[in-house]
Amino acid sequence: MSETANRILKNSGYLYFSMGLSMVVSLYSTRLILNALGASDFGIFCIIGGAIGMLGFLNAAMSTTTQRFINYAEGEGKPETKKSIFTVSISIHFLLSLLMIAVFEIAYFFFFDGILNIPTERMNSAKWIYQLMLLSTVFTIQTVPYNAIINAHENMRYMSIMGILQTLMKLAIALIVVYVCADKLVLYGVLTTLVSLIFMLILMIYCHRNYSECKFSITKYYDKNLMKEMTSFAGWGFVNSSSSMFAQYGMGIVLNSFFGTILSAAQGVANQISGQLMVFSRTMLMAINPVIGKKAGSHEIANMMRISLFSSKMSFLVIAFFAFPFIVETPYILRLWLKNVPEWSVCFFRFEIARNMLDQLTITLTSAITAEGRIKYYSIYRGCSYFLPLPISILLFNFGFSPYWFYIVWIVTWNGIGSAIILYYAHKNCGMQYVDFYKVIVVPVVLITIITLSISGLVTVYIKESFLRLIIVLCTTTIIFISVCWGLVFSSKEKEIISSATLALIREIKMKLRF
Q1: What is the secondary structure of 69-96 as a DSSP string?
Q2: Would you give the DSSP letter of residue 510?
Q3: Which of 250, 292, 456, 464 is most enclosed, with most CB atoms within 10 A?
Q4: How far apart (Å, rounded) are the C-alpha atoms in residues 67 and 369?
Q5: Which of 492, 480, 460, 468 lies closest to 320, judged by CA?
Q6: What is the pTM assigned to this prediction?
């Protein structure tokens, strides 16, 4: 397992480097684009992009399906099966692209005939952006099978290089839009679509040259039964992703309808900060999920579950490391960032980050259930749990409950009932023992949360709020967190794995530097 841990650590390192650069450059690029387009045109771009992104769950379901089947076949070691999966996947994504084009060309007439509130003088430009964003989305859909191939081969170095290149091209687009005299909104749409096309072509050429399974042939590799199996799997994945997306949009609408735009702004602030923190977890999962899929394919279920349990704990710890100081100093940090902080923002952020941290406790168990393959009833029950917060919140708000009950209900249903469903199917389908979940995840997580937040909270009691106190809290939280992790959270076996993987990574870096 130390070899696996070393591979995961190395791949995570590549992805974190790419992510860090992307975050910094993206913040600067967004600022340039906002200033160049102006608030109105930037809003038009976001509205139309959001409208098209509404059906992103279709692509998400197929992306998960493609990734699962390719990882599984990689674990089985069946080259011909991988070629069939690739051919079927390309076919499905081509059909999905045609479906999206048809749906959105029909929706085009409804969007621009009363649904979208766009100034008359910018209507023509908005229509151009709509078509360009649709074309860009089609290009992105076509890259899914190729991304899945690269991910299955755990070629995270190439993925990080592509991420950096894409980030730099987005910066170049921002600079071009700033300095070129034209309809900047349309120009921005054209360049963004061009980047999507370029990266689709790069991925296609790279995969066809480097991976033998990238052989598309309907006559030779198309498998009707595999097509049925993959579309069925994607259908159940669609239940999950669509119910989750609609529930999240619905909760925002419920909050807005009962309490107005101020509460929506507070929720937006909470989601933005929490979303940035969640990037760290999502990046790690990109490196872990291929390993879980391969273990399922090679029928190493017990080993898959050990990796899944350890990975869920690590995912929580990665988020907690960055989140704990934010939780303790939320009021001061929000005032530094925003100056005028919307009411309820502090409360909402703390609830939102707590909800996301609880999600991490079972996040790779979900990956294990998906990798194992029997997801029909899991998807149905999990999808139902996603919708539960909507009627309960509406009922409570009608009785005059405070806005924060929105998050309490969400945590009880999504994290409470939802986690119970995940644990049940991890036990039933993958043989996970409940006592292992308690020992590996629950006890260590409760210990580090109580100890770190209690001691860091004491600092805020005895020191007046200031930038100096923020630095002290950051230092205190970091020292306590690392100490408790090493002393109480990690088992002796986990310490051995982490130490050997870290040393192996350091040796590899030194060798490359010498070279």
Answers
A1: HHHHHHHHT-HHHHHHHHHHHHHHHHHH
A2: H
A3: 292
A4: 14
A5: 480
A6: 0.73
Question: Over the stretch 328-367, which tens digit does the pLDDT of each residue have?
Answer: 888 888 777 666 666 777 888 888 888 888 888 988 888 8
The per-residue pLDDT for range 385-419, each reduced to its tens digit, is 888 888 888 888 888 888 888 888 888 988 889 89
Taking alpha carbons only, the member of 171, 322, 330 closest to residue 266 is: 330
- Smallest CA-to-CA distance from 304 within 428, 490, 421, 430 is with 430
Q: How many CA atoms lie within 13 A of 188 on its CB side?
A: 28
Identify whether the C-beta of residue 280 lies closer than 8 Å to the C-beta of residue 319: yes
Q: Which of 510, 512, 513, 496 is nearest to 3 (CA)?
A: 496
Q: Residue 51's CB: how many other CB atoms inside 10 A?
A: 16
Rounded distance, CA 264 to CA 502, Å? 43
Q: What is the pLDDT of residue 183?
A: 76
* Other C-beta atoms lying within 10 Å of the C-beta of residue 320: 22
Write down the pLDDT at residue 424. Answer: 93
User: Is pLDDT above 80 for 314?
Assistant: yes
- Looking from the CA of 100 toward its CB, the CA atoms found within 13 Å total 27
The residue with tokens 């929000």 is 334
